[in-house]
Design a protein that fits this description.
The complex is a heterodimer of chains A (459) and B (841). With 459 residues, chain A is α/β, with parallel strands linked by helices. Chain A is built from twelve helices and 14 strands. In chain A, strands 6-5-7-1-8-11-4-12 form an eight-stranded mixed beta sheet, with helices on both faces. Chain A has a two-stranded antiparallel sheet with strand order 2-3. A two-stranded antiparallel ribbon of chain A has the order 9-10. In chain A, strand 2 (96-99) and strand 3 (104-107) form a beta hairpin. In chain B, the strands form four sheets. Chain B has a two-stranded antiparallel sheet. A two-stranded antiparallel ribbon of chain B has the order 3-4. Chain B has a two-stranded antiparallel ribbon with strand order 5-8. In chain B, strand 6 (698-700) and strand 7 (706-708) form a beta hairpin. The termini of chain B are far apart. At the A-B interface, helix 1, helix 5, helix 7, helix 8 and helix 11 of A face helix 16, helix 19, helix 20, helix 31 and helix 34 of B.
Chain lengths: 459, 841
């Protein structure tokens, strides 16, 4: 029997899910930690989402054969979009360096990443069925090419709840998905599972966290105390009402959340060495470095799912002048993401944290015509992404595209639903059982898409 | 390597002729498929042991698309490697099947017959007898023991069930509680102290009924009930495309809804107008509407609410067209029919007797509005004229205006506007990264923007880092581009007379002969199956005499297909067992928090059964007999003892029926987001009760939250007039579960209790604004006397004097404050953040 939507609504509205009244205070937010379906490999996820379509063949998936055809027509037909398509191959304008013990070649645009590459498993045979940004982004984050479905972080927090009741379970950092906040929306899952936008600003990291001007902490405590006293007076007629009780608990939680969120966003508490590791004060890399450092602080505090957008450094959608644009974009994310991997490892957080890096698609090996400074068009047929951390092999390569980096080779072809299945699997969630009743259907993140756990990459 | 050559040769030979089913195909199927797809096991409902079985298809519909292997489920499953499950099929056998699908003989009538036989088997007489598919019948009012509690027939139905348990309804709630409940439910606002005083001091026996009549007649009633309907319709002021662009004139539909509730338009008429207003008035596309056509056209905004992610790209749009069409079908019909028709988009409904073919028969009804082969652009920014806007202008001005907006001049200006917006965004991105942006780089950036073939512009991008003005100073290039744009605009304005276009975003049939509708295999538009004509779901149709849609060719005077009007008339006819029940149930839910059928959108097999089926039917029948008069229905409900009873917790029923199925009390409810915000404005004296008109703009607050923009607009108006955005909702409302319509519509609000709500009540700019205004108003009214102000504060916020315990809290709080005025301000904030303000008991 499915629970009806109404039952689920009610359960979550009250947040108690059948718990006794005594444990209400802890669970009032509806996010009590819940048992996974089986023993998890990972407890938290940091999902670095590079909206716009990063050119993975110029970053970590080099294709030496492109040199041979550079400036010449491709040896087989490259189907791009009809816009400014061409068949003219462009080799990567950048050098690659064999890096780490695993000896994978990483572009010199990512010098910091080169030094941490041994931690990473590359999935080099991604494919998606969407070729334009909005539908591909919806697909990558929600499993469907259209608006109106919950994001992966919502599904994960719905399944597992969260450890720290003083912070939201699902937090989104930065900007850069062209579908906006829908990339971390809970859609029809209860609102408590929606991604909360957070900023790396200790003064106002979350909406309404900052006390208004002139409101001292003491004054606010008095205000809360007064509300609580009024609430207790007013509850006399309905002493058993769980909803009214929850609201009392919520003022206490709100006060704690204020402290916790401000604290976690306060990067000045970090040592100089750590700040340098992430490049927090560097002119270009600083913005993203701050977000990555925040992400670490968040998972350290028990936040279940952190989504970082990589769009703050400009537009990854490099249709034109990729030569001029990509270095800056890479510089923006390189130090932060590499610092994150190093830092998580050093602090022993890597054993519980899964880091996932991907865009909604990659870019073609050909140039887009009609520009003196050419770029590359969208490539949904074959692109790369990576994962690192809890439950994932180190220094492993899964799958490949053809020698020109155009299409994923069929035997290892994987897509967004396989990634969704794998992430959930690592968290101990059976992706087929993590369902929610919606409009008469038992919906899940994967839905009716074919999906499999990519067992080859599991450690 | 060698063998694959052979396969290739073999398949080349095969490509020339059709393999024979019995001699060549059946052996392959028997080898690889029949162990599971046998007449006995029939996995997935599919039997592949005979030709008839192959033709009949399985649970996912037909498996053969004659001549089109790539659209045949049989081939798709084999080709993708999903089938045979756990086994492998040789390449030669695969090619054989492919060739068979491509060249084999599959008589269409045999396919159709097989499909229809399969369907008929699903629509059993038993399925037709499902409670909600049988027209409602009024049954006699039951007798009860405690007649003293029965004010209306509604009460008898409820009391009878309670008495069977040995329970009873509660006595009437306290007058203050009842009054507030009625205000919240009918107007979405708390009463003013004067209104409360007027009612509480009226001790006559008809006082309550007088109040009911007065509130039903008030403007506030129309606004509040419009909000309910807008939830059901999925109304939003943004489009839901990539940048979530604004729907500039959507407010006209919102105003139409308010006016309709205000005027108590019969609900059957209300539904007819929304589903088919254009056809009701026989609007001719491309002409200027007559004044009487305008209202009907505005009503069809109902069919334009869906999130539409078609954008300015010229390709890869087709599936988005289908998505918009299908979502419109699903949302509009589930709103009135209470069935999750969407489940049948890809296959026959798993639980309800709804066929996939039913889904596409209903889709055909709407095909002429959202015709994927004859698409209308969402608005001017997204493509050439015509768009979904009806131009409400005299013919001559119309022509001039169209010529003007389609001119190259106009296009060039729109382009420059885009480039300028994108330039600010791009420069900000650089600044955010701490870059200087040297003069040469500025030109490079501009060039990049100009060259971007799918430039996406976020019109609401944050203006952080630096203001526009400062940027203009720092980067003269920006200023120069802006000036160029202004000059061009000014020059153009000089050239043409100032024609202000007047739009209505409406739905109409793009042609009398829309593209055909096909059953889409697995919902995939690339795999069309059987062609269907408009029709009713089989389970609701008469098999002996199927419902017929008119042929528009026989009506040369029509400017439309007549399909939607025909469907809409059926929806509100006595033959339809669902519409009145579903509507009455929704109205009930808006008063009690839960419907008589708790699954308000699902009256099917998976849904909840009605707690009081005879009551639901009696109300549905009477509602129709009273000409779908909503105010009549509402009055029936609010005059009943069921509605007027108290909300006390009584031990036994609380234990046995904690969620109040039997209505042994009126359950306390947290107020909806808009009611909370609007009531706060009201008690603090800030509320501006101006009605109708353009959406009030929003701005980003200091911490990034979206909020009322008091400079550019009027943030003191009721929430229904604020811009309703899918991606940038007003943070204060959103905290209290106002919908964003990212799901297609929201027929039942969440009533969550989350710490983020407490944060909004403690720290939001809105609560600061209202508590300041509230306390200064109190001080003014009390001549500066704090004690008096506190007393008045309780009356204003709760419509009652303070209880002794509450007064003690107030005294203690104010005594501890170093500044009495500041103390008062904080104390009134506490009053607004406490449960008695947020709940209706």
């Amino acid at each position: 029997m499915f629970r009806t939507r109404r039952e689920a609504l009610r359960e979550v509205a009250l947040g108690f899910g059948g718990l006794a009244l005594q444990s209400m205070l802890a669970s009032a937010a509806g996010l009590t930690p819940r048992k996974p379906h089986f023993a998890p490999k990972a407890k938290n996820v940091i999902f670095i989402y590079i909206g716009g379509g990063p050119s993975t063949i110029d970053m970590f998936d080099p294709k030496p054969l492109l040199r041979k055809y550079d400036g010449k027509p491709a040896p087989f037909e490259i189907k791009g979009r009809a816009l400014n398509g061409s068949q003219q191959i462009m080799a990567s304008p950048w050098e690659f360096t064999r890096s780490g013990k695993s000896g994978r070649e990483i572009s010199n645009l990512l010098p910091h990443f080169q030094s941490t590459v041994d931690q990473v498993t590359f999935v080099r045979s991604m494919q998606t069925d969407r070729i334009d940004h909005s539908t591909a982004q919806f697909t990558f984050v929600t499993g469907r090419g259209f608006t109106g479905f919950p994001a992966i972080g919502s599904w994960v927090s719905y399944a597992l709840g969260t450890e720290n009741q003083n912070l939201p379970a699902y937090i989104a950092l930065g900007e850069g998905a062209s579908i906006g906040t829908r990339a971390h929306s809970s859609a029809w899952l209860p609102p408590v599972y929606s991604g909360t936008s957070m900023r790396a600003d200790a003064k106002a990291p979350i909406y309404n966290i900052k006390r208004p001007e002139g409101m001292s902490s003491d004054k606010q405590n008095q205000l809360i105390a007064a509300i609580q006293k009024l609430n207790r007076e007013q509850r006399a007629d309905h002493p058993l009402d769980a909803d009214l009780e929850a609201r009392i608990a919520n003022y206490e939680l709100a006060a704690k959340m204020q402290l916790a969120a401000t604290e976690v966003a306060d990067l000045s508490k970090e040592t100089e060495a750590t700040r340098q590791l992430y490049g927090v004060d560097a002119p270009v890399a600083g913005g993203f470095g701050k977000l990555c450092l925040m992400a670490r602080r968040l998972v350290e505090s028990g936040v279940r799912f952190v989504q970082i957008y990589g769009g703050g450094g400009g537009n990854w959608d490099t249709h034109t002048n990729i030569k001029g644009q990509l270095p800056g974009l890479c510089q923006y994310i390189d130090q932060g993401m590499a610092g994150l991997l190093v830092d998580l490892e050093q602090r022993g957080l890597m054993k519980d944290t899964l880091v996932v890096w991907s865009g909604e698609f990659g870019r073609l090996p050909t140039i887009e015509a009609n520009s003196a400074t050419p770029g590359r068009d969208h490539n949904p047929y074959g692109f790369g992404m990576w994962m690192a951390g809890a439950g994932v092999k180190q220094g492993y390569d899964f799958g490949a595209t053809d020698d020109l980096g155009y299409a994923a080779l069929p035997e290892h072809r994987v897509g967004h639903s396989d990634i969704h299945a794998t992430i959930q699997h690592l968290l101990g969630i059976d992706y087929e059982k993590n369902t929610f009743p919606y409009e008469g259907r038992n919906e899940s993140l994967v839905g009716v898409n074919p999906a499999r756990v990519i067992r080859e990459i599991l450690s | 390597m060698k063998w694959s050559w052979l396969v290739l040769v073999a398949s080349c030979a095969l490509a020339q002729r059709a393999p024979l089913f019995k001699d060549e195909i059946l052996p392959v199927l028997e080898k690889s498929c029949v162990s599971c797809h046998s007449p006995e096991r029939k996995m997935g409902g599919l039997d592949l042991s005979t030709f008839a079985g192959l033709m009949a298809g399985g649970a996912s519909g037909p498996v053969v698309a004659p001549g089109k292997p790539e659209r045949s489920l049989l081939w798709m499953q084999i080709d993708s490697g999903r089938m045979p499950m756990g086994g492998k099929m040789t390449s030669a056998n695969k090619q054989l099947i492919r060739a068979y699908l491509e060249h084999g003989r599959f008589p269409q009538d045999q396919l159709d017959q097989a499909a229809q036989a399969r369907e008929a088997a699903k629509i059993t007489p038993e399925a037709r007898r499902w409670w909600s598919f049988v027209p409602p019948l009024a049954s006699p009012v039951p007798a009860v023991k405690q007649m003293g509690l029965v004010r209306t027939p509604i009460d008898a139905f409820v009391q009878a069930k309670l008495e069977a348990k040995g329970w009873t309804m509660q006595p009437e709630a306290e007058r203050v509680t009842l009054m507030r409940r009625l205000y919240f439910d009918l107007t979405g606002l708390s009463p003013t102290p004067a209104e409360a005083q007027a009612f509480l001091s009226d001790r006559s026996s008809g006082a309550y009924e007088k109040l009911v009549d007065r509130l039903l007649a008030s403007d506030r009633y129309g606004e509040h009930w419009a909000r309910h309907w807008l939830d059901i319709a999925g109304y939003s002021d943004t489009r839901g495309d990539a940048g979530d662009g604004e729907r500039e004139v959507s407010y006209k539909y919102r105003d139409y809804v308010i006016r309709s509730f205000q005027a108590n338009k019969p609900i059957d008429r209300f539904l007819l107008e929304q589903f088919a207003g254009d056809q009701l008035v026989n609007y001719k596309p491309g002409t200027a509407p007559t004044p009487e056509q305008i209202e009907a056209l505005t009503a069809t905004g109902f069919l334009r609410t869906i999130a539409d992610i078609t954008d300015n790209q010229t390709i890869y749009e087709v599936d988005k067209y289908f998505d918009a069409l299908q979502k419109t079908v699903e949302t509009s019909l589930s709103s009135v029919m209470g069935l999750s028709v969407g489940c049948a988009r890809c296959h026959d409904h798993k639980f309800d007797p709804l066929l996939q073919r039913d889904y596409y028969k209903l889709t055909a009804v709407f095909q002429a509005v959202w015709d994927p082969e004859n698409w209308l652009a969402a608005n001017l920014g997204f493509g050439p004229w015509p768009s979904r806007m009806v131009l409400d202008m005299p013919q001559k001005e119309r022509e001039a205006w169209i010529a003007d907006v389609t001119s190259n001049d106009a296009k060039a200006i729109r382009r420059l506007e885009d480039l300028l917006d994108a330039s600010y965004q791009r420069f900000r991105a650089e600044l955010r990264m701490g870059r200087e942006i040297a003069p040469a780089r500025r030109l490079v950036l501009r060039k990049l923007i100009e060259d971007d073939p799918d430039l996406e512009i976020d019109r609401n991008a944050p203006k952080d880092v630096m203001s526009d003005e400062e940027m203009d100073k720092r980067f003269p290039e920006l200023k120069q581009w802006k000036d160029e744009l202004f000059e061009k605009k000014a020059a153009r304005r000089k050239k043409q007379s100032a024609i202000e276009p007047n739009f209505i975003e409406a739905a109409w049939d793009v042609s009398k002969t829309p593209s055909p509708t096909y059953v889409l295999t697995r919902g995939n538009y690339l795999a069309p199956g059987m062609k269907v004509e408009p029709g009713l779901p089989a389970v609701l149709d008469n098999p002996a005499k199927p419902f017929a849609f008119p042929d528009p060719k026989e009506h040369p005077e029509w400017n439309h297909t007549g399909r939607r009007l025909t469907l809409a008339k059926w929806l509100v006819s006595r033959e339809n067992p669902l519409t009145a029940r579903v509507f009455v149930n929704r109205v009930w839910q808006f008063h009690f928090g839960e419907g008589i059928v708790r699954s308000v959108d699902d009256f099917g097999v998976q849904g909840d059964k009605p707690s009081h089926p005879e009551l639901l039917d009696a109300l549905a029948v009477q509602f129709q007999e009273h000409h779908w008069d909503l105010k009549w229905l509402t009055k029936q409900i609010v005059m009943s003892q069921v509605y007027r009873q108290g909300s006390a917790e009584i031990a036994e029923p609380l234990k046995m029926d904690p969620s109040n199925h039997l209505l042994w009390r009126k359950a306390p409810l947290r107020l909806e987001a808009e009611t909370i915000r609007d009531s706060m404005l009201l008690v603090s004296g800030l509320l501006d009760s101006k009605m109708y008109g353009r959406q009030e703009p929003l701005k980003r607050g200091a911490d990034g939250q979206w909020m009322e923009d008091d400079e550019k607009g009027n943030g003191r108006r009721r929430s229904i007039y604020l811009k309703q955005s899918r991606t940038r909702p007003v943070a204060f409302l959103h905290a209290f579960d106002s919908p964003t319509m990212n799901t297609d519509h929201e027929t039942q609000r969440f009533r969550s209790a989350l710490p983020t709500q407490s944060l909004a009540l403690l720290n939001s700019p809105f609560i600061e604004k209202v508590s300041k205004a509230f306390s200064s108003q109190l001080l003014e009214q009390s001549g500066g006397a704090i004690d008096l102000a506190v007393e008045r504060a309780f009356v204003a916020a709760y419509s009652r004097p303070a209880k002794p315990g509450e007064m003690a809290v107030a005294k203690e709080f104010l005594a501890a404050a170093d500044n009495p005025r500041e103390g008062l301000r904080l104390f009134v904030q506490a009053l607004l953040g406490a449960n008695d303000f947020l709940y209706s008991y």
